[in-house]
Amino acid sequence: MQNHAYSRLGSSGGGAAVPSPPSPPWRALGRRASAKGGWSARAGAGAARRAARAVLAALLRRQAVFLFAPLLYVAAMLLYMGSISLDSVPRIISRPAPGSMYRSPQLYARLRADMDADNATDALATVWRHAYKGGIWRPCISNNTNGLPESNGYIYVEANGGLNQQRTSICNAVAVAGFLNATLVIPNFHYHSIWRDPSKFSEIYDEDHFIQRLKNDVRVVDKVPAFIMERFGHNLSNAFNFKIKAWSPIQFYEDVVLPKLIEERLIRISPFANRLSFDAPPAVQRLRCLANFEALKFSKPITAISNTLVSRMREKSAENNGKYVAVHLRFEEDMVAFSCCVFDGGDNEKKELDAAREKGWRGKFTRPGRVIRPGAIRMNGKCPLTPLEVGFMLRGMGFSNNTAIYLASGRIYKAEKNMAPLLEMFPLLQTKETLASDEELAPFKNFSSRMAAIDYSVCVHSEVFVTTQGGNFPHFLIGHRRYLYGGHAKTIKPDKRRLAILFDNPRIGWKSLKRQLFNMRAHSDAKGIEIKRANESVYTFPCPDCMCRSNKSEHPKSIQAR
Questions:
Q1: 121, 202: one domain
Q2: 532 by DSSP, 3-state: which?
Q3: Residues 282 and 425 both lie in one domain
Q4: From 62-66, 148-152, 395-399, the region with the lowest mean pLDDT
Q5: Where residue 15 falls among pLDDT bands split at 50, 70, 90?
Q6: Is Membrane found in the keyword set (predicted)?
Q7: What does pTM read for this prediction?
């Protein structure tokens, strides 16, 4: 009957149905066998599902069993691991993080023979190849011949910080006083517990030259007149004191300071370091440059000893036509401690530097949550270069061991140990202490700013200046050298991140290292002729255009005496 129905459904049109032939007997047997096997499989699957449901139901009724499942897993793993021989387990080799180890001594020891054999190159003859991009460098600080209008009052500032931070304060004070048509009182140097130098303005700078050089642009007096002081009980602390935010624009002085100056006739600004924005009109930039590069000359005693040391350095470098290299090295204990870098002193070094950090910056480095990663600090180029690294770098840049080096620095951390490799590489190395006698240095020895002024002067006149760390000292020197040497700073400013990678590479060869350092030297040569960009210090990038364009007529009318 099934076959008959199938044939009827399969017929076409309305024709008569044709009956299907009967199926063979073996097909019927196959169908019965297949039906029996399928039933057996379905029966087995159903039994498995019923068993799984039963197990799950039992577990759900006993939920506490789930709490023991992780323990059972861990126990099984321990049993499994205990059955494996430790000899067959691969060992994990722990390697120190990049930069976490001070590898420079090992690299120096390995490459020293190659370095000594390669001593023919003399970089002093070929170090500077680029010329100022703007053509002929004409540092234009035009003199004002229009005369000065009546003064709006007196400005008294307190310059804080070290030598070059005080220099910033002086130059900014000249610019503000000139812009406001005020009379500047010779700045007072604020005594600081770090620098511990009680020197006055006239003991570091030539005060008469300062006043005379600025006389056509800014009135400068050495003290406030008595008739003004009478109003304040002859006590400067009674004068109104402005607390001005760092990097304030010159417009703030016109809008806020000038009215009070006209009202009081005498104001104080304390402290005054970095209280004027780098970005300023040409008239202000011109006064800054006039003060820094022309008006500020060191006092006669400092100039005399500095000229003596420059002459002696040129005598030491007679083989190189009197040319020498000046290096500003910052590897004093406080600098090493503040950097939080690790060198090769072990536990003793750690104890010493921890104590120095706590003494100088109580709690700064030990506060909760402070994480110090010495390796990351080094690889980021923030570690001070050691004397060994400075010497290694210079030799790689092509300076031979007969190059005369002048080292400007404070007291080097563990000097006897750390200076030894640098002296091996450059036996003609000198400092102010080795060039001058104790008697010659006696008037300056206990005054940090006067000693820094001597270093500054000797570095200015070097053929090459090498800076190893940031700060006001190199920034002012770079600008001063640009001003003196046709727009070229003649300064090597190494890429300390790149140096960290090179000195951390235990497999680098001398030729490869030297090639990389030569490229670094060439980069400094190209960077030395850069022109000032916006928001950069005119003390580092003296801009002839800013100085040439400005004149007194640029001052706002409101600044004239009322």
A1: no
A2: coil
A3: no
A4: 62-66
A5: very low
A6: yes
A7: 0.81
Helix (H, G, I), strand (E, B) or coil at 268: strand
CA 111 to chain centre: 29
* Predicted confidence band of residue 14 (pLDDT cuts 50, 70, 90): very low
Measured CA to CA, the distance from residue 219 to residue 323 in angstroms comes to: 40
Parent domain of 228: 154-297
Residue 368 pLDDT more than 70?
Answer: yes
328 lies in the same domain as 383: yes
Same domain? For 331 and 425 the reply is yes
Task: Determine which of 16-25, 398-407, 526-535 has the lowest per-residue pLDDT on average.
Answer: 16-25
Integer angstrom CA distances of residue 506 from 102, 136, 171, 509, 527: 11, 46, 48, 9, 30
Torsion of the alpha carbons at 295, 301, 306 and 312, rounded to the nearest 10: 150
Backbone phi, psi, residue 506, to 5°: -75, -10
Q: What is the pLDDT of residue 525?
A: 93
What are the DSSP E strand ranges found in 180-297?
Answer: 183-185, 188-189, 219-221, 240-242, 266-269
Residues, the chain: 562
Rounded to an integer, what distance in angstroms lies between the CA atom of residue 463 and that of residue 303?
Answer: 19
- Three-class SS state of 309: helix
Domain for residue 36, yes or no?
Answer: no
Q: Is residue 200 part of a domain?
A: yes
Distance CA 186, CA 475 (A): 24
286 and 306 co-located in one domain: no
- Are 252 and 265 part of one and the same domain? yes
Angle between helices 282-289 and 163-179 (to 10 degrees): 130
Give the pLDDT mean for 390-410: 96
> Measured between alpha carbons, how far is 532 from 527 in angstroms, rounded to an integer?
11
pLDDT in tens, 119-169: 877 788 889 988 776 666 666 576 776 789 999 999 999 998 889 999 999
Whether residue 353 lies inside any domain: the answer is no
**175 and 288 Cβ atoms separated by less than 8 Å:** yes
Same domain, 522 and 386: yes
At 559, is the pLDDT very low, low, confident or very high (cuts 50, 70, 90)? low
268 and 333, same domain (yes or no) = no
What's the structural domain count of the chain? 2
Pair 282, 549: CB distance under 8 Å? yes
- Asked if residue 291 has pLDDT above 80, the reply is yes
